[in-house]
Amino acid sequence: MGTDRVATLRTDLAAALRAAAMHGLNEGVCNHFSVEAGADRYLINPQGLHWSEVTAGDLLLIDGAGRVLEGRHALEPTAFFIHGCIHRMHPHAKAVLHTHMPYATALTLVEGGRLEWCGQNALRFFGRVAWDEHYAGLALDAAEGERIAARLHGCDVLFMASHGVTVVGPTLAWAYDDLYYLERACMHQVLAMQAAAGRPLRRVPDALAARVAAQTAGERQQSDLMFDALKRLLDRDAPGWRVL
Prior knowledge:
Shape: globular
Largest sheet: 8 strands, mixed
CATH class: Alpha Beta
CATH topology: L-fuculose-1-phosphate Aldolase
CATH superfamily: Class II aldolase/adducin N-terminal domain
Radius of gyration: 18 Å
Number of strands: 8
Strand content: 15-25%
Strand order of the largest sheet: 4-3-2-1-5-8-7-6
Order of helices and strands: HEEEEHEHHEHEEHHH
CATH architecture: 3-Layer(aba) Sandwich
Number of helices: 8
């Protein structure tokens, strides 16, 4: 992959991290985003930086063995084991976004908790969600990374029991758009559950849910437009994030 293309990926990854902080999807200096930058090459955010302060130049270029090839910061261990295994085991996962965002994570804390097909934001994920029902602690070795990656089953979203979520996609723009709308869908569901007073959620039939998911998949230009808008907002409100 050419130098210019990698530079573009650096700015896009920095934009995704900054936008996630703006949208409240981050947690401290934890969690991690990565994007494939060539054969056995990945860009990933470094250890210890808040997402709201990351610049394009802060991002690490690593290989599949977790060696830092470019970068002035350290690599967080769980980031490598989760992301490296997903990139390697799932070729469709060019971008891998792992967060502990509040509402989606809340559903992973409920026994048998599921994203229900009850709202339009949720329906875009119909047929695209996998579930990891086993929590095994921090992902500090390749075995746990491979176990997590195997649970993705070729889907785009993985709810990780007692932990958080991972969203993957063919581009950063599409993955970030899914991450944003996943949290909105989970927020709407949690709020509806709180307001329901024991009444059931209004579940959309599977056939209609599948049709809406297909409709949304056919409008992915919206994802690119949103990502472009977020970069314009960052240029306006947080100058300096593009610095290499």
